[in-house]
């Protein structure tokens, strides 16, 4: 398929990629498959993967960057449907949520919708390929289908969204550390893993990243700077509010308040490909150029200001990415630094929202170049909070592995598994001088966001030009602002 707003992946192709990754990991590590006690699984959350009644893929998997259901989502908003869901589920469905995509499919692909035998997620497809068993876990199911308080499947959500027909297609929901089958003969031949090796049910990737950072307690706030801007804090009870989704934690009786938007390091990858299309390590090259400048005071060099909304934003309006204050003397390192700062400003907006849910015990960051000291320091300075950085490069992979350690009895719980790890953490304290500079820049970032909102819809639709002009007369933009729109239709 080659349609605007559709972001999909062939499910068999995804499985082949897993096979290659597992084989490469075994070869490069030199680990004997017989020494592997268990396998943990994680993958991106949200989106939608469906099977037919023969347990074969029913079309391509829909990724979480997909925005085909935006119009339907807007209808729900106007009808008050989204608000009806909040007291049931603790969150409003997103355009890329599985329940929203199912409703879109019912309207636009009724034959496909009618043929659905299983509704689950990317991680669950991988585990099915490994074990031959169909199931999902609490963290994934709670993205679309569970009651906020009971943490069980909710028929009320399906009724409100008019997708009650798929109730029987929702798979068995288990806990992340339960056994979810064992490596089959076919999977063993394909991957090099040992047949019969236990596989845990696994975790939604962002929850896995929090666990891999060592964050398992109420008040632990973790940031994952990946394709999405993921900001989450565990709570001992459900907390409903604007600006976050209250989902299930990795065990019953634990909740995860998440403030997210598709507006983080994917921006950096986009610019890196654009500026250095022939370089495989383009992002690392540009990050190195930025790093060489970050030792000096931020006030010494005027860097453009960036809104990181290439793929989406935290706002319901159709936001656009923009660069402000670009001058002829700016170079590619300036632009890349502006993007890094802009993505961290977006994380800050989410973090400030999550602080409304209660006290923050600690804060850790993974992904998005945060392992680079200069960028980690930038997180601390912009957030004005101490930031912990783990020496683990892939926190999500460690979190998934720890579910397997519990599933096979090496640890009694994820908390015990985390406590048994001896992983050094580096703490970055905010530097007062830099924090003051970034505070002023952040306030400009917020002010420019508010100023641009009336213009966003007009950037996409000619029919909206009159509304944008009328709005601009009511809220004029200062004449020193220069905005460069950068948009991209996502295609597979």
From TrEMBL:
Keywords: Kinase, Transferase
Superkingdom, natural source: Bacteria
Domain Carbohydrate kinase FGGY C-terminal: 249-407
Record-stated family: Belongs to the FGGY kinase family.
Protein name: Carbohydrate kinase
Molecular-function annotations in GO: kinase activity
Keyword NAD in record: no
Species: Gluconobacter frateurii NRIC 0228
Signal peptide from the UniProt entry: none
Pfam families noted in UniProt: FGGY_C (PF02782), FGGY_N (PF00370)
Database matches in InterPro entries: ATPase_NBD, Carb_kinase_FGGY, Carb_kinase_FGGY_CS, FGGY_C, FGGY_Carb_Kinase, FGGY_N
């Amino acid at each position: 398929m080659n349609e605007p707003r559709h972001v999909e992946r062939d499910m068999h192709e995804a499985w082949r990629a897993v096979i290659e990754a597992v084989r490469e990991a075994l070869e490069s590590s030199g680990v004997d498959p017989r020494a592997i006690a268990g396998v943990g699984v994680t993958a991106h959350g949200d989106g939608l993967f469906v099977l037919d009644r023969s347990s074969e893929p029913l079309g391509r998997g829909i990724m979480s960057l997909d925005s085909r259901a935006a119009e339907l989502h807007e209808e729900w908003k106007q009808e008050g449907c989204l608000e009806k869901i909040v007291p049931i589920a603790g969150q409003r469905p997103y355009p890329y949520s599985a329940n929203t995509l199912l409703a879109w499919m019912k309207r636009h692909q009724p034959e496909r919708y009618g043929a659905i035998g299983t509704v689950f997620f990317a991680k669950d497809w991988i585990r099915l390929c490994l074990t031959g068993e169909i199931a999902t876990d609490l963290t994934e199911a709670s993205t679309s289908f569970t009651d906020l308080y009971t943490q069980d499947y909710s028929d009320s959500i399906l009724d409100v969204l008019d997708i009650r027909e798929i109730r029987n297609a929702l798979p068995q929901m288990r806990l992340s550390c339960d056994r979810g089958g064992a490596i089959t003969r076919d999977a063993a031949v394909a991957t090099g893993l040992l047949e019969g090796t236990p596989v845990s049910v696994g975790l939604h990737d962002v929850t896995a990243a929090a666990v891999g950072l060592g964050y398992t307690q109420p008040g632990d706030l973790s940031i994952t700077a990946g394709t999405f801007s993921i900001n989450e804090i565990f709570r001992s009870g459900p907390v409903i509010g604007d600006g976050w989704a209250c989902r299930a934690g990795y065990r019953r009786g634990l909740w995860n308040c998440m403030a997210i938007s598709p507006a983080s390091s994917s921006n950096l990858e986009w610019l890196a490909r654009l500026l250095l299309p022939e370089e495989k390590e383009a992002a690392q090259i540009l990050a190195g150029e930025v790093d060489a400048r970050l030792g000096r005071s931020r006030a010494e060099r005027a860097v453009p200001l960036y809104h990181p909304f290439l793929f989406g934003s935290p706002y319901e309006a159709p936001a656009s990415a923009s660069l402000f204050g670009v001058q002829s003397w700016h170079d590619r390192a300036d632009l890349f630094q502006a993007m890094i700062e802009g993505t961290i400003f977006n994380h800050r907006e989410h973090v400030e929202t999550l602080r409304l849910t209660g006290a923050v015990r600690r804060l850790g960051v993974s992904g998005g170049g945060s392992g680079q000291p200069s960028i980690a320091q930038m997180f601390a300075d912009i957030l004005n909070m101490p930031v912990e950085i783990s020496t683990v490069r892939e926190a999500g992979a460690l979190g998934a592995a720890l579910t397997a350690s519990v599933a096979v009895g090496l640890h009694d719980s994820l908390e015990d598994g985390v406590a048994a790890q001896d992983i050094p953490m580096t703490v970055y304290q905010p530097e007062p001088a830099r924090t003051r500079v970034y505070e002023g820049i952040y306030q400009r970032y917020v002010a420019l966001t508010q100023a641009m909102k009336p213009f966003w819809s007009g950037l996409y639709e000619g029919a909206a030009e009159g509304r944008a002009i009328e709005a601009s007369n009511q809220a004029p933009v200062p004449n020193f602002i220069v905005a460069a729109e950068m948009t991209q239709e996502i295609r597979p």
